[in-house]
Amino acid sequence: MHGIILKTLQAFVVDTYGEDAWLSIQREADLEEKVYVPVTVYPDRDVYELVHTAGELTDQSPRTILAQYGKWVVPSLLETYDLHIDDEWDGLELIANIQQFHTSLRTRDLTTLTTPRIRSERIDENQVKITYDSDRKLCDIARGAIEGVADHFDENLVYEEQTCMHDGDDACRFDIRRTATDTAALDADTTAEFEFESTADTPTGGNDD
Predict the structure, then answer these.
(1) Tell me: the pLDDT tens digits for 110-162?
(2) Which residues, in sequence order, are CB contacts of 76 under 8 Å at separation 6+?
(3) I need a labelling partner for 98 at 20 to 30 A (CA). Which of 89, 92, 145, 166 fits?
């Protein structure tokens, strides 16, 4: 697991639940005093244990924690990888170019990190399909990230997850659409509306994130 995931997961927990909560989660997960560095690769187990423990201590499912993290981390990742993002992209355009964006990150990474397989397909100016395929089954982060992108760019985006690896499918497939409100007034000062539903299963381990 890339260190930036664990580093930002720590920042998310501290920002959302407080420093004491992070220390308690580390202690209960038997990862006490472990320091995460963005450029280092860590065992996948660290994420699963931290998220599972965070769910127990906050009375939420691990998948809900992952979705919350996915939404929270969007601004941080956009700032970190700003050079890979076109200034003229809106939220849906960013999602449409996620495959290109992700490939560029894989190229710049000099570690032995294994990364998820992400494919994007632009259907039309208001619709994008994304396929996520990973043994780590962290699609809940993707769900949260879609919401985070909608909020960050102040866009009305809705999605449907047509297939999910947690249901036994070979990949997670998302159909993401810009609503009629945004289509009619892309430059208007509107408040983003986003349909989001998290599920309650625990993620399983694997080789990709």
Answers:
(1) 455 556 688 999 999 999 999 999 889 999 999 999 999 999 999 999 999 99
(2) 8, 11
(3) 166
- pLDDT grade, residue 186 (50/70/90)? low
What are the start-end ranges of the E strands in the chain? 117-124, 127-133, 157-163, 172-178
Convert 153-173 into a string of H (helix), E (strand) and C (coil).
CCCCEEEEEEECHHHCCCCEE
Digit-coded pLDDT (tens) for 44-97: 999 999 999 999 999 999 999 999 999 999 999 899 888 778 888 999 999 998
Q: What is the pTM of this model?
A: 0.80
Q: What distance, in Å, lies between the first and last C-alpha atoms of the chain?
A: 7
Reported in sequence order, the residue ranges of 4-156 that DSSP labels E, i.e. its strands, are 117-124, 127-133
DSSP SS3 for 88: coil
Spatial contact of 153 and 129, defined as CB atoms under 8 Å apart: no
CA dihedral 147, 53, 33, 68 (to 10 degrees): 10
Angstrom distance (rounded) from CA 45 to CA 35: 15
The first and second tokens of residue 101, run together, are: 């964006």
DSSP state of 85: S
In one-letter notation, the amino acid at residue 161 is E
Structure tokens at 130: 């994304």
**Residue 42 Cα distances to 6, 10, 37, 47, 49, angstroms:** 8, 14, 9, 9, 13
